[in-house]
Amino acid sequence: MRVKRGVTAHAKHKKLLKQTKGFTGSYSRLVKRAHEAVLHAGEYSKQSRRKRTGDFRALWIGRINAGLMEYGVRYSDFINLLNKSNIKLNRKVMADLALDHKDSFRELVALVKK
């Protein structure tokens, strides 16, 4: 007895085409092209997730540097002094302090300058 898999194949194809909604031309209409597009999109999304971490680090460094300009301290000197003072704060937290909690950031800079 043979197995007719039309229903299964149709369901798989519908699922695949649903993933490619918004893609250009045949990449959202033809199953073979859509499959290729989904594979490539997956690779690009992984690369982008890796890239995003570096982008955020650059943003945090820029914010810290902008906050330090007020006190006449360079970013590299500030990080060096932080390490020498054995203060363990990550850049995300320091950027938040520089942007939203200016009093705390001022105290941190004063502590490090001593």
CATH class: Mainly Alpha
Total of DSSP H or I helical runs spanning 4+ residues: 5
Q: Note the overall shape.
A: rod-shaped
What value does the Rg take, in angstroms?
26 Å
% residues in beta strands:
under 5%
In CATH terms, the superfamily is Ribosomal protein L20, C-terminal domain
Q: Give the topology string: H per helix, E per strand.
A: HHHHH
User: Can you name the CATH architecture?
Assistant: Orthogonal Bundle
Largest sheet: none
- Number of β-strand runs: 0
Q: At the third CATH level, what is the topology name?
A: c-terminal domain of poly(a) binding protein
Secondary structure layout plus pairing:
Layout: H1 6-19, H2 31-69, H3 75-84, H4 91-100, H5 102-113
Helix pairs in contact: 1-2, 2-4, 4-5
Give keywords.
single chain, mainly alpha, 114 residues, rod-shaped, c-terminal domain of poly(a) binding protein
